[in-house]
Amino acid sequence: MPNLDAWSPRVLSILRIITGLLFIEHGLMKLFHFPAPQPGAPDPLPALLMVAAVVELVGGGLVTLGLFTRVAAFFCSGEMAVAYFMAHAPRGFYPALNMGEAAVLYCFVFLYLVFAGGGPWSLEAAFRRRT
Question: Where are the domains of the chain?
């Protein structure tokens, strides 16, 4: 379907932007209780969750902007893999039952972005066009 193929790079950029914005929200919930406190997160946050919140804010922001997309997505994917195996997998094998579906999905979307890059609607693409 050639009409859809033409939109593929743009939809990649939309996927990147929406994923990054949703990921930022998790960091905001952990650090600033915005728009609400992260369900199940202790207050004050232990060091590991503080690191996770920073990765979510900074990594999610970079992914959203399409700046250092591959590196940021690599760290975000790794964080989600660690989160799944530390917090969800011990509760059971199936992600739908151990509440780990979002972590698995984020992990693999970010892993895809490591290989696909930011797409045409990214700061990286804008900088390439200017040089």
Answer: 2-130
46, amino acid identity: P
| C-beta of residue 106 within 8 angstroms of C-beta of residue 99 | no
Confidence band for 116, pLDDT divided at 50, 70 and 90: very high
What does the block give as tokens for 13?
Answer: 């950029």
Residue by residue, DSSP assigns 113-125 as HHHH-S-SSSHHH
Is 33 a residue whose pLDDT tops 90?
A: yes
Q: Say how many C-beta atoms besides its own lie within 10 A of residue 7's C-beta.
A: 11
Euclidean distance between CA atoms 100 and 105, whole angstroms: 9
| Number of C-beta neighbours around residue 74 at 10 A | 17
pTM of the model: 0.95
Higher-scoring residue by pLDDT: 83, 43: 83
**What is the C-alpha separation between 124 and 35, in angstroms, rounded?**
30
Gap between the Cα atoms of 10 and 58, Å rounded: 23
